[in-house]
């Protein structure tokens, strides 16, 4: 882990570190995914700078309930959340994006240090710069890294009780077994006296879910297609986004939303000198979003070495924010 040479000066209360991310590993992962029988692209490749901006626009769409619902839960329960976090905690947010939701907690929680982590370097840099200017009292230690490959021993964090903040329905993007491994990594990072504040999207009627992932403004469609543009840059590819269509639906058997990019024709794409053939109607599986009950989410997180302290839900029981202590 090395201090990154910044394109501009950041506020004095902000530091920026960049973890080494191997382009060769990215190429290997992308090519392996696209050579499977069911072609897949890891959803982390949604989040180049434009993809991160598009996701922020998705959260503002009227059909997309998770963000506004979770924001209300966080705002209305900030004092109780602060009591759980404790005084002068080190608040760590993997996949921090624009750090919008943490703003609902900062004045109440008053962490000693806030650690935003994101894979989109420029977007993280801009977000940390903005947050540092808004909260000059807050020590911000931004880390550009893929959390799945991040070793927290490679950088010295501020001393204090570590609390991981993982809002949104991001845990649902992982299959339950991958989510369990991720949560175990979180548990290891926050250590024996740490905590976890996490957002969990709850099971609900199909119509509401379908609308949330097929907004009338077409922002989710553009977000899904943008992953192909990002892949083109990463692996020197020639995806033509006009050859694909967005498809999102609820898989009732698996309790998950699935997002796909469906090929509109028979054609061949070249990626890093590797030819990938597509048949008309064939899809690339780009994302899952698993939906949990309160009991199933509690069981999943506790299996990773935590114990539930509090769970808050909205009156329509669309979404839940839960706080766990490490055990």
What is the structure about, briefly put?
The protein has 327 residues and is α/β, with parallel strands linked by helices. The chain is built from ten helices and 15 strands. Strand 4, helix 5 (103-109) and strand 5 (113-118) form a beta-alpha-beta unit.
Largest sheet composition: 9 strands, mixed
Structural class: alpha/beta
Shape: globular
- What percentage of amino acids are in beta strands? 25-35%
Major beta sheet, strand line-up: 1-2-6-5-4-7-8-15-14
Helix content bin: 25-40%
Q: Care to count the β-strands?
A: 15
What is the CA–CA distance across the termini?
29 Å
- Uncertain ranges: 1-7
Order of helices and strands: EEHEHHHEHEHEEHEHHEEEEEHEE
> Average pLDDT value?
93
* Number of helices, where a helix is a run of at least 4 consecutive DSSP H or I residues: 10
Q: What's the gyration radius in Å?
A: 20 Å
Name its key features:
globular; 327 residues; alpha/beta; 27% strand; single chain; disordered N terminus
Characterise this structure:
- This protein is an alpha/beta fold and 327 residues long.
- 34% of the residues lie in helices and 27% in strands.
- The chain has helices at 23-34, 49-58, 65-76, 78-85, 103-109, 121-134, 176-190, 206-212, 219-235, 294-303, and strands at 2-3, 14-18, 39-40, 90-94, 113-118, 139-144, 162-166, 195-201, 244-251, 256-263, 267-271, 274-278, 283-290, 306-313, 319-326.
- The strands form three sheets. Strands 1-2-6-5-4-7-8-15-14 form a nine-stranded mixed beta sheet, with helices on both faces. A four-stranded mixed beta sheet has the order 3-13-10-9. A two-stranded antiparallel ribbon has the order 11-12.
- Helix 6 links the parallel strand 5 and strand 6 (139-144).
- Helix 2 packs antiparallel against helix 9 and helix 4 (78-85) crosses helix 5 (103-109).
- The protein is globular and about 60 Å long.
């Amino acid at each position: 882990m090395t201090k990154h040479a910044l394109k501009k000066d950041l506020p004095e209360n902000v530091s920026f570190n960049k973890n080494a991310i191997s382009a060769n590993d990215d190429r290997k992962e992308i090519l392996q995914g696209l050579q499977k029988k069911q072609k897949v692209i890891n959803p982390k490749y949604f989040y180049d700078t434009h993809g991160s901006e598009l996701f922020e626009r998705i959260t503002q769409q009227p059909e997309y309930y998770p963000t506004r619902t979770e924001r209300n839960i966080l705002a209305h329960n900030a004092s109780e959340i602060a009591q759980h976090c404790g005084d002068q905690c080190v608040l760590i947010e993997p996949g921090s994006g624009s750090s919008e939701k943490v703003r609902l907690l900062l004045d109440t929680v008053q962490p000693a240090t806030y650690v935003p982590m994101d894979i989109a370097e420029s977007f993280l840099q801009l977000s940390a710069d903005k947050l540092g200017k808004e909260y000059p009292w807050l020590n911000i230690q931004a880390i550009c890294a893929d959390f799945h490959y991040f070793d927290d021993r490679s950088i010295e964090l501020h001393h204090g009780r570590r609390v991981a903040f993982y809002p949104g329905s991001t845990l649902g993007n992982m299959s339950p077994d991958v989510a369990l491994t991720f949560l175990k990594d979180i548990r290891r990072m926050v250590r024996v006296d740490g905590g976890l504040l996490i957002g969990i999207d709850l099971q609900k009627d199909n119509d509401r879910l379908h609308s949330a992932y097929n907004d009338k403004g077409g922002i989710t469609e553009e977000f899904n297609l943008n992953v192909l543009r990002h892949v083109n840059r990463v692996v020197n590819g020639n995806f033509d986004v006009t050859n694909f269509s967005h498809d999102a639906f609820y898989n009732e058997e698996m309790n998950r939303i699935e997002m796909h990019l469906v090929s509109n024709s028979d054609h061949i794409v070249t990626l890093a000198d590797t030819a990938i053939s597509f048949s008309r109607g064939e899809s690339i599986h780009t994302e899952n979003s698993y939906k949990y009950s309160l009991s199933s989410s509690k069981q999943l997180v506790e299996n990773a070495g935590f114990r539930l302290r509090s769970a808050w839900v909205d009156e329509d029981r669309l979404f839940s924010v839960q706080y766990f202590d490490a055990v």
